[in-house]
Amino acid sequence: MTALLSLWRNTFVRRVLEAALTLVGVSVLTFAVLRVLPGDQITASYGIEAGALSPDQLASLRAYYGIDRPLVAQYFSWLGGVLTGNLGVATQSQQDVLDMTLRALPITMELAVLSIVVALLLGVPGGLLAASRAGALRDNGSQLLSLLALSVPTFLVATALSSWLANRFGYNPNGEEFATLLRDPALNLQQMALPALTLGVSIAAPVFQTTRASVLAIRDEDYIRTARAKGVPPRRLQARHVLRNALIPVVTISGLQFGFLLGGAVVIEQIFSIPGIGRQVLLGMTQKEYAVVQSTVLVIAVLFVLVNLLTDVVYRLVDPQARAQ
Amino acid sequence: MSATTTAVGVPARAPRGGALRAALLRPAGVVGLLLGAVVLVLAVMGIFGLTPYDPAKQDVTQSLVGPSGQHWFGTDQFGRDVFSRVCSGLANSLRIAVVSVGISGVLGILIGVLAGYYGGWVDRVVGVLTNVLFAFPSLLLALALAATLDRSWVTVSIAIATVYLPIFARVARAPVLRLRHVDYVTASTAIGRPRLSTLFAHVVPNMWGILLVQVTLSLSWSILTEAALSFLGFGTPPPAASLGGMVYDAQTISAVAPWMLAFPGLAIVVFVVGLNLLGDALRSTLDPRSGGRR
Fold it and tell me: One GO term of the cellular component aspect (chain A) (predicted)?
């Protein structure tokens, strides 16, 4: 038992180290992309007037911003700033990127949670229904539906749905100024309903497929046959033996999708004017606010890695096999 | 987790050509192929300028005309023929999908295969690099890259290729890990064939099925990604027609001209559904366990 535990700890430690290494890579890549970007901090703050600066002025400005130092030194001073919460400032609005991010993040988190709830409510029962009679009409029908959900772009569904509701019924809660959950819950939930529904339907497809595949795989396992032979009633067999084990991969896929939603909801946030973190990146891009883009993308990537790590930990906690390995 | 390994850990040798033919005989394969053929015909019309109208030609006297014998899919607010623009948009999607999947497929498979075959530090470095790329949500990464580079269909292709490269690397690596210790591979190196030559003579040819499925699915994803990029204004620049851009343009006037939203949207869906059906049919043929087994 103790040997198994230490072995599990080892794989766990390995997984954490891997995540840490990934984060280092993420920071290097983000930093490198910023250096590749056309224009530097000087052109960012002076615009086209940067061209009128004399070589002396340019040199002193470069020294001021620290971009005359070697790249490695620049990287470490940038990283030091990021680690102490200095994510830079949006030049036009003079807003602190950390503040902006802290405001946008809960909104995206709420959207992600609601979308996952929709996806689970659609995908898990659908997967169970399909697996209950593999190859039958209900199976093929729901597989076709999931294929459609994967194939129809979310921006198309969102555009069609919202313009239909607005044109036909004059219902457009997202036309009003965005309300946070704390300020006006009723309006907030109305504004979140369509985006969460659209995203939820598209994520329901992988949840459905995972549920279906894992129920089918588990049904033929030896321990299920043993339980059945022992005379466990079918209903109890389904609930205690099949469902409980079949839902383990669903935890993993939900975690992955949640992580993906933290940055992947950019299109939906844009269409429904939801001031989340994806929209922050997009606005940064259109306004050429490179500090905003770079820091926000970094935050999203870090969260993504952490959510995946957490998913892995939860998976190890709920899956006896992974625990034993 | 995956149940693709057989009892002895040796995958069944995929029959060349046979699997493809079998996949195309499945209902999903037939429908997929039909949808693909329709899309291909329209895209070819777009590529060679065989559309009924010039997709970029404006004619204000004909603006926002509904679908008719003259304009099958109607016209947009500038009087441009929507059918011609859908054809040219499909051509654009196809071109970007083929180029981006080509780049990411060739490089990704090469990297994945080498990492899996040689193992050790090569594998570890590749593992870290793919993990880093995976840490960025795919659309966001494509968006960031496309916004950094100048806007053109080439840069969009490169951006999408970067996103899918690690996926190909990972998909290609897994079967190599299983295949590199199979008897005929060991035998090949034992009789003195160089390792690299063994890799391409005996390992890679046995994984083409898995890779073909991945190529089909990646094509459909890259079409969706390109459409999303164009919708957000970071894809193929106007006046060239792109399906995502057309949906975006239709957004505000879809109440007056629903055809402007419906037809480009339908074109994306048909294209992607067709490719996904083909991919599904291929996958179920190659791996019967993933299909509707009892």
Answer: plasma membrane
Q: Do residues A106 and A246 share a domain?
A: yes
Residue A259 has pLDDT above 70, yes or no: yes
Checking if the pLDDT of B4 tops 50, the result is: no
- Please tell me if residue B39 touches chain A, with a CB cutoff of 8 Å: no
Rounded CA-CA distance A238/A222 in Å is 15
| Range(s) of the domain holding residue A221 | 98-286
Domain match, A51 and A104 both: no
pLDDT in tens, A47-59: 666 667 777 877 7
User: Would you state the pLDDT for residue B105?
Assistant: 94
Q: How far apart are CA B199 and CA B193, in angstroms?
A: 10
Q: Is the pTM of this model over 0.95?
A: no
Residues A61 and A107 in one domain: no
Report yes or no: B148 at the A interface, CB cutoff 8 Å: yes
B63 touching chain A per CB within 8 A: no
Q: How far is CA B137 from the centre of its chain?
A: 17
The residue from A83, A108, A134 where one domain ends is A83
Q: Say yes or no: B138 contacts chain A, CB-CB below 8 A.
A: yes
Which of A115, A140, A148, A159 would you mutate first to test chain B, the one with the most B CBs within 10 A?
A159
Quote the minimal CA–CA distance from B131 to chain A in Å: 6
Distance CA A219, CA A217 (A): 6
Q: How far apart are CA B104 and CA B125, in angstroms?
A: 18
Q: Are the Cβ atoms of A21 and B228 closer than 8 angstroms?
A: no
| ipTM higher than threshold 0.90 | no
Q: How many CB pairs under 8 A join A and B?
A: 132
pLDDT tens string B249-269: 888 887 788 888 899 999 999
pLDDT at B27 (0 to 100): 82
Checking if the pLDDT of A67 tops 80, the result is no
Is B220's Cβ below 8 Å from some Cβ in A?
yes
User: Using CA atoms, how far apart are residues B201 and B181, in angstroms rounded to an integer?
Assistant: 15
Q: Which of A57, A83, A109 is the last residue of a domain?
A: A83
- Together in a domain, A147 and A36: no
Q: Do B273 and A281 touch (CB under 8 A)?
A: no
Please count the structural domains in chain A: 2
Residues 6 or more apart from B139 whose CB is under 8 A from it? A263, A264, A266, A267, B225, B228, B229
Whether B292 has its CB under 8 Å from any CB of chain A: the answer is yes
Q: Are residues A72 and A119 in the same domain?
A: no
